[in-house]
């Protein structure tokens, strides 16, 4: 099915070199790799066993038949487990998972690569799983059913087996490539090489700002997939969720999308000036929307502050609003007459 309908990133690059080069710089281009082929695996195999910071366990890493294996040295009777995939771009973290194709289940490993430590540490949010059942998959991390595995791999790959087929590792196309957002384009690529590319119409078109954001929200999440019990510091991970709650979005019908500020192909820019200039396209002198507190200030620090999620990992809050706790810090004192 994949070979029949999907062209692959290389085919797209031949006609769209600028976008392809940008995509290769992005985190999307490196968000899934076979664990055994990863730099992280190489580092772990050359290093020492990892003592869990919250459990009486120590994990040892070995390679066997080109498989990266992990075992708990404190429980010799517990079988070693292979780490199948390493998921995440590494901008913040990369987490290994085990996929059991026979049982159609998996495990999110308890240890990850953490960029802010430049090394191994507790997988984010695994402090919730300190209690575990001996001799079970819980010993290695968070057990996942088939739906969990499909969800994880579905957001870190371009395409995988459809729901009616079993999970099969070799049917996943690693990383988020062109056709994850643009749809299968093999027919388009074939026609393009004949000079007839326009005959193959786009399979994916975003008729509204909401539809555009919904495409990103398939993985970055919005109100349809965020837990109602999520805490504010957890919600900052989910940019579409926050953006859709913002007055900037709600009062600018069909104008504000993720790509208003972010190049959808390239890596996330850290040029604060670019973002401030984008805010000032609407919030400028002569408009009711001008920021009266500090019109020449840093919009991002005040209205989209970086907020720690967990393990020192922070995200900018995309619910654009006045944060009352930050207002005194960023406001310019008004001179009394």
UniProtKB/TrEMBL annotation:
Keywords, ordered alphabetically: Signal
SUPFAM superfamilies from the UniProt entry: Multiheme cytochromes
Gene3D superfamilies attached to this UniProt entry: Flavocytochrome C3, Chain A
InterPro entries noted in UniProt: Cyt_c-552/4, Multihaem_cyt_sf, Multiheme_Cytochr_ET
Keyword match Thylakoid: no
Pfam families, per the entry: Cytochrome_C554
Residues annotated as domain Cytochrome c-552/4: 145-183
PANTHER family named in the record: C-TYPE POLYHEME CYTOCHROME OMCC, DISSIMILATORY SULFITE REDUCTASE SIRA
Protein's name according to its UniProt entry: Cytochrome c-552/4 domain-containing protein
Organism expressing this protein natively: Rosistilla oblonga
């Amino acid at each position: 099915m994949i070979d029949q309908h999907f062209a692959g990133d290389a085919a797209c690059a031949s006609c769209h070199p600028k976008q392809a080069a940008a995509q290769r710089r992005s985190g999307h281009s490196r968000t899934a790799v076979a664990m055994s082929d990863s730099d992280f695996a190489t580092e772990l195999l050359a290093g020492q066993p990892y003592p869990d910071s919250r459990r009486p366990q120590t994990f040892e890493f070995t390679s066997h038949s080109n498989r990266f294996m992990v075992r708990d040295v404190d429980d010799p009777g517990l079988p070693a487990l292979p780490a199948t995939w390493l998921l995440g771009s590494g901008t913040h973290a990369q987490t290994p998972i085990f996929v059991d194709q026979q049982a159609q289940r998996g495990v999110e490993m308890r240890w990850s690569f953490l960029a802010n430590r430049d090394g191994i540490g507790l997988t984010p949010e695994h402090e919730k799983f300190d209690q575990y059942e001996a001799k079970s998959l819980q010993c290695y991390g968070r057990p996942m059913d088939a739906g969990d595995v499909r969800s994880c791999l579905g957001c870190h790959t371009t395409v995988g087996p459809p729901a009616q087929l079993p999970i099969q590792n070799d049917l996943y196309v690693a990383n988020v490539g062109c056709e994850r957002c643009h749809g299968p384009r093999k027919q388009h690529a074939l026609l393009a090489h004949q000079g007839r590319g326009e005959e193959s119409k786009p399979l994916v078109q975003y008729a509204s700002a909401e539809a555009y954001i919904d495409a990103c929200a398939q993985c970055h999440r919005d109100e349809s997939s965020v837990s109602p019990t999520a805490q504010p510091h957890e919600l900052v991970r989910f940019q579409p969720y926050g953006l859709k709650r913002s007055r900037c979005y709600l009062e600018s019908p069909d104008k504000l999308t993720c790509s208003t500020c972010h190049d959808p192909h390239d890596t996330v820019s850290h040029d604060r000036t670019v973002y401030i200039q984008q805010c000032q396209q609407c919030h400028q002198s002569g408009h009711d929307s001008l920021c009266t507190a500090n019109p020449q200030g840093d919009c991002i620090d005040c209205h989209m502050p970086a907020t720690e999620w967990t393990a020192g990992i922070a995200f900018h809050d995309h619910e654009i609003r006045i944060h009352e706790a930050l207002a005194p810090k960023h406001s310019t004192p008004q001179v009394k007459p």
